[in-house]
Amino acid sequence: MAAAGENLRINGDRLWDSLMEMAQIGPGVAGGNNRQTLTDADAEGRALFQSWCEDAGCTMGLDTLGNMFATRAGTDPDALPVYVGSHLDTQPTGGKYDGVLGVLGGLELVRSLNDLGIKTKHPIVVTNWTNEEGTRFAPAMLASGVFAGVHDQAWAEAREDAKGLKFGEELDRIGWRGDEPVGARKMHAMFELHIEQGPILEAEGTDIGVVTHGQGLSWTQVTITGKDAHTGSTPMPMRRNAGLGMARVLEAVEEIAVAHGPHAVGAAGHIDVYPNSRNVIPGKVVFTVDFRSPDLATIQDMDAQMKARAQKICDEMGLEIAFESVGGFDPVTFDAGCVSAVRSAAERLGYSHRDIISGAGHDACWINQVAPTAMIMCPCVGGLSHNEAEEISKGWAAAGADVLLHAVIETAGIVE
């Protein structure tokens, strides 16, 4: 096997054109995308991706949760494939690059190898994982979680969206359920290219993030119950204001996260207030506290402190409080060999790089449980993501895909 030379690069213009063409499917209202999972727009995006893969000489596999696997054959029929990919689904007000860069960067890798006539010992498989975002059907990373044995498939298919539509029924409706059993595939390794979704790389002027770890997270749904009452005629000392209780708990969440820095974070992103009327003191609030850290003990300590302080706050205010764990996963340590391949690829290509911890969940976090896995990150403007204003440069996309190319072919083995 020969090593890849530093002059080996992907076609950055072609990658960018593919990103822009995919972004025309499921356009948002402000320049981004609304291509939520298992919608008609998702089906259209999948069809375009499949046509591109087949044009590149790949064969498409499809499992019973709609995960797509485009295979470029290797020279050794017994060698396990090297997987690359991410997801094509978006948030309701999502950007053009979150997930999509990883899928189309994988496709561009295959196209570039074809252009150069390069063969690899191991097959290369470009993957589109179903429902990474979890915005329509919770939780996030649903299908990759089933693939990794984290979730039960029947449970996943029974997940409902806000309209009561079931995941499995919507998958059938759009016509993207395959016959292949979920999780039947074995992997030599997997690499996922993704935008950072944070501000560090851009702020430091660094080209590449070498992702060594993924933050673990804990989601606790908190319900505080007081008493609905008129905002004008209820004396202050006689109020049981659930909204005020929530405010004090959220202040505690902030203090707890700051005290566990620098890598710990915490906030509440999902908040429902009842009855949510201008002249009614809230009698009930439901909100989800999201704590994250690369250290499991830190997450557990933050959870424990939050519950103790929240209980004390509500007891003193005459409020009732209940806690329910509604999601989470342990911190991830990515495979040392795959991480090394990413780092050496960036060095060989002359790109500035730094080790980085992913603050968000990704399909790679689940796949890491069943195969050696690593991630590559490129900067995004202002660290903004899950927003239609999400933006990256053509150069950042190309650099990330170049590193992906070199890490993959180092792992898959060039055949002379």
TrEMBL record:
Lineage: Bacteria, Pseudomonadati, Pseudomonadota, Alphaproteobacteria, Rhodobacterales
Residues annotated to bind Zn(2+) 1: H87, D98, H194
One Pfam family linked to the record: M20_dimer
A GO molecular-function annotation: hydrolase activity, acting on carbon-nitrogen (but not peptide) bonds, in linear amidines
Cofactor stoichiometry and binding remark: Binds 2 Zn(2+) ions per subunit.
Official protein name in the record: Allantoate amidohydrolase
Family note: Belongs to the peptidase M20 family.
Entry binding sites for Zn(2+) 2: D98, E133, H386
Keywords attached to this entry: Hydrolase, Metal-binding, Zinc
Cofactors named for this entry: Zn(2+)
Residues of the Peptidase M20 dimerisation domain: 215-315
